[in-house]
TrEMBL record:
Keywords: Oxidoreductase
SUPFAM superfamilies listed in its UniProt record: Glyceraldehyde-3-phosphate dehydrogenase-like, C-terminal domain, NAD(P)-binding Rossmann-fold domains
Family statement drawn from the similarity comment of this UniProt entry: Belongs to the Gfo/Idh/MocA family.
Protein name in UniProt: Gfo/Idh/MocA family protein
Species this chain originates from: Paenibacillus chungangensis
InterPro entries: Gfo/Idh/MocA-like_OxRdtase_N, Gfo/Idh/MocA_domain, GFO_IDH_MocA-like_dom, NAD(P)-bd_dom_sf
Domain of life, source organism: Bacteria
Pfam families assigned: GFO_IDH_MocA, GFO_IDH_MocA_C3
Domain Gfo/Idh/MocA-like oxidoreductase N-terminal: 5-124
Keyword hit for Nucleotide-binding: no
Oxidoreductase in keyword set: yes
UniProt domain GFO/IDH/MocA-like oxidoreductase: residue ranges: 136-252
Length: 339
């Protein structure tokens, strides 16, 4: 590919400004050519701050720009379906922020629309592009920690005083399972290479925060009696660890989903009475995410994580939310590895 792909950004969300746009700009195969907001002043201000050539005052204007190859959608969750489908119909490839949709059924619609339009669709789970997850899977496969017995993970932060936050609008797809619980679920599926059989989740629903789940704790059951135990929250101290437990050892990842600071890509292995650090070079996972999509668009390599993977992750999220609301164990249909 001689020319870089031109990206358009639908919205001025914090994650876009803070991480994804700089990541695309730092990538090898992409450039950010335009940004759109329904607030013209916000679009212009953000374009100036981030050195983006064109600012549009509507999403429709950006999608009508024939020079744009790819769009990134960081809009609130309830808008993912509409604007992914509209982008696909405009012939744009799409990177959509996680979670892909509000339900697995919505995600299926989005995948079908992109397939019909012949465009690529990728879910923005940036953490998966860090090479340490390949290393972790290699360690498990080597037998160093023995047979897999369980996975434990958490992703919590405290933003509870920001009462206008979109995360606290239930009808917009607010809540901690959608926002951060999706990470441990995705990671467990990635590590095991399996789809869950059942989930049980208990949650704190807060009337102060639009009746969304401000904290949730769950058990996700895989085959061979392996399970993920996780908690997620938006009203708790910050942390994002991951632990993989085996019969002979443990893999510990202190910062499983947030990287970028010096040393944050490294993790630890306890086995044979010793604890060693596995040093993995720091990298910009947002740039890697963009370059991987560019490779798929150019036909050089298929997407490593297919859109159907996002549908399957949404099915687990559906089950978790149903379990939390209804206070019961929810079974899922079993399926083989999705990778």
């Amino acid at each position: 590919m001689s020319e870089k792909l031109k990206w358009g950004i639908l919205g001025c969300a914090s994650i876009a400004k803070r991480a994804v746009i700089p990541g695309i700009q730092a990538s090898e195969r992409n450039e950010v050519a335009a940004i759109a907001s329904r607030d013209a002043e916000k679009a212009s201000r953000t374009a100036e701050e981030l050195d983006i050539p064109v600012a549009y005052s509507s999403y429709e204007e950006l999608l009508a720009d024939d020079s744009i190859d790819v769009v990134y959608i960081p809009l609130p969750n309830h808008l993912h379906r509409e604007w992914t489908i509209r982008a696909a119909q405009a012939g744009k490839h799409i990177l959509c922020e996680k979670p892909l949709a509000l339900t697995a059924a919505e995600a299926e619609e989005m995948v079908a629309a992109c397939a019909d339009a012949g465009v690529q669709l990728s879910e923005a789970f940036m953490y998966r592009w860090h090479p340490r997850y390949d290393v972790i899977k290699e360690i498990i496969a080597s037998g160093e920690i023995g047979e897999l017995r369980g996975i434990r993970s958490a992703f919590t932060f405290n933003n509870s005083e920001d009462m206008s936050n979109v995360r606290y609008k239930r009808e917009w797809g607010g809540g901690s399972v959608y926002d951060v619980g999706c990470y441990p679920i995705s990671a467990a599926r990635l590590i095991t290479g399996q789809e869950p059989e059942a989930v049980t989740v208990q949650a704190l629903f807060s009337e102060r925060h639009g009746d969304v789940d401000m904290m949730a704790s769950g058990l996700v059951e895989f085959s061979d009696s392996v399970s993920l135990t996780f908690d997620c929250g938006m009203w708790a101290a910050f942390r994002n660890p991951l632990e993989v437990l085996g019969t002979k050892g443990i893999i510990e990842v202190p910062s499983a989903y947030v990287t970028g600071s010096p040393g944050s890509g490294s993790f630890f292995v306890q086995s044979g009475g010793e604890r060693r650090e596995v040093v993995v070079a720091d990298m910009n996972v947002y740039a890697a995410q963009a370059d991987a999509l560019a490779q798929a668009i150019s036909g050089e390599a298929p997407l490593r994580y297919t859109p159907q993977d996002a549908v399957r992750n949404m099915a687990v999220i559906d089950a978790c939310l149903a379990s939390a609301r209804e206070r019961r164990r929810v079974e899922l249909g079993t399926s083989p590895s999705r990778l």
